[in-house]
Amino acid sequence: MDHSRFSSVVSHQEVNGILLNRLCLPVFSFGLTLALALVFGAGQATLAANEGSGRTEILQTEDAGGSTPDPLRACEQAVELDPVDAWNWVQFGVLEQQVGRLEAAEVALNDALAVAEADGNERDLSVVMTARGHLQRAQGDLAAALESYRTSLAIIERLVAQDPGNAGLRRELSKSHKRIGSVLEAQGDLVAALESHRAGLTILERLAAQDPANAQWQRDLSLTHVAIGDVQRAQGDRSAARESYETALQVHPSDQEWRDYLVALQLRLADVRPGRRGTLAAVQSCEAIVAIFESLVALAPDNANWQSGLALGHLRLGQVQLAGRNVFTARESFRASVAILERLVAQHPDNPAWQSQLAHSYDELGKAQFGLQDVLAALESFQASFAITERLVALDPGNAQWQGHFAHGHSRNGDLQWSSDDRASARESYRAALEIRRQLVAQSPENERWQTDLSVSHDRIGDSLNAQGDLAGALENHRAAVEIRERLAAQDRDHAGRQRYLVVSYVKAANILKGQGSKQALETARDHYRKALAVAVRMQERGILTFRDAGLIEEVEHLLATLPDE
């Protein structure tokens, strides 16, 4: 079987400072490709970096004058000339997806599938199924995407068994595992996601050992370590995540290429190390990526994929600005992201990925507006985010990430309703969030983020019931929060947020018990206060007691002193 299409066959040209291949797709350097993947995250890495500069190209075109061609027209001509070549149809579908025409992309890929099945070429069929998986992810259908990726994986496994010495096939097999891992992570199945990423890692480690000088394989190896670290971070295993990220840094391309990657990786490492995320290096990295996509958009304003990349760049820039407490500049970055995405969603209402991105941008904009005391504007942004997420969840109730955002929206609504003294509505919102989060934790109990969110829901409901006078219900919820937070705090004693959450839950439960007044309740309250004090003292000893919590020890000691003598 001919696998020659795994080799690179594309020449490049530079337009307005951006290196392009003959289909007008950007070709990024090794280090910058990695930086894009890091900044945009696993779910957006393919979109942002076009799966890296090592991707096989299928079609070459050039007009008579040697100027930049129209890629869609080139694909149209290709399928007209050779309608029984599945690769032409795949490229046509990919480009239709890039400009946001998902229905047209689906038609093209269905034609590709029909051609590949009629021809019986398994390699072509695997390519088609991978492209269908990418499209189905963009459509928000994770279950269908997973099925397509698994079908492609099974084909590649058969091809590798037939030709075990083919390095290109083995690399493609590793990428298939990575794609599956990414979908499983989006569905919330972190254990299975980690297993898939590690299967891909095993293949890449063998390839890299055979040829340590192969930069393409080293790139894949580094990004797979990052993907594993992302899953480990979601599981709450910061130590393992840190180890994975640091292993990713052991790849050694040229210093110039590596600089971009080193800067972007700080966004990952900062999440698993003590300290603030809003570093100057992180801001500069995001600014550089925004500038790249601004150049691309100026080159082709109608390219919806590049518009989406620019919106993501503004979103990430705003997040690091907000983390660095630059609230004014963060608000402007979020506004830029929202403006781009509103146009994209209006032009392509059938693209749920962009709707999800818009909901996220609205939510971040609301945070910045609230931080600037612009409460009405913040409320409008939060409501816009919630409405979009509600529609997405109705579209695909099995999308765990959307469900998590929906629960966050309910909880946010509850906070706003509570601050407006609409406490009955607030309780309903908190309960709605609680039920969603219970289901998510039941599906993926190892997901640390969802465990934390569930504890927050119990905390909110406990507070609301306490204000209502339902002390038994309040205590039940605060104890549920304590149980979760004890477990999370024990997993990572250097995580200041987890330790502080635990102190708060101990104190809230103790305050209710103290109000009950019985001897047993008072003794349990004393035990909770002492536990809270022990955690706060340990935070101080470890150097993770922040400035805002400087009075925490004194406060807990005062509460303990208010109890009657033993």
Biggest sheet overview: 2 strands, antiparallel
H/E element sequence: EEHHHHHHHHHHHHHHHHHHHHHHHH
Beta percentage is under 5%
Number of strands: 2
Number of helices: 24
Straight-line N-to-C gap: 83 Å
Low-pLDDT runs: 1-32, 42-69, 274-278
Mean pLDDT: 80
CATH-defined architecture of the domain at 276-397: Alpha Horseshoe
Broad structural category: mainly alpha
Principal-axes shape call:
globular
Write the layout of secondary structure elements.
Elements: E1 12-15, E2 18-21, H1 30-40, H2 45-49, H3 71-81, H4 86-98, H5 102-119, H6 122-138, H7 142-162, H8 167-187, H9 190-210, H10 215-234, H11 238-248, H12 255-269, H13 280-299, H14 304-323, H15 327-347, H16 352-371, H17 375-395, H18 400-419, H19 423-443, H20 448-468, H21 471-491, H22 496-516, H23 519-542, H24 552-561
Antiparallel strand pairs: 1-2
Helix pairs in contact: 1-10, 1-12, 3-4, 4-5, 4-6, 5-6, 6-7, 7-8, 8-9, 8-10, 9-10, 10-11, 12-13, 13-14, 14-15, 14-16, 15-16, 16-17, 17-18, 18-19, 19-20, 20-21, 20-22, 21-22, 22-23, 23-24
Descriptive account of the structure:
75% of the residues lie in helices and 1% in strands. With 566 residues, it is mainly α. Among the domains are: 69-162, Alpha Horseshoe (Serine Threonine Protein Phosphatase 5, Tetratricopeptide repeat), CATH 1.25.40; 276-397, Alpha Horseshoe (Serine Threonine Protein Phosphatase 5, Tetratricopeptide repeat); 399-468, Up-down Bundle (Methane Monooxygenase Hydroxylase, Chain G, domain 1), CATH 1.20.58; 480-566, no CATH class. A two-stranded antiparallel sheet has the order 1-2. The longest helix is centred in the C-terminal third of the chain and has 24 residues, at 519-542.
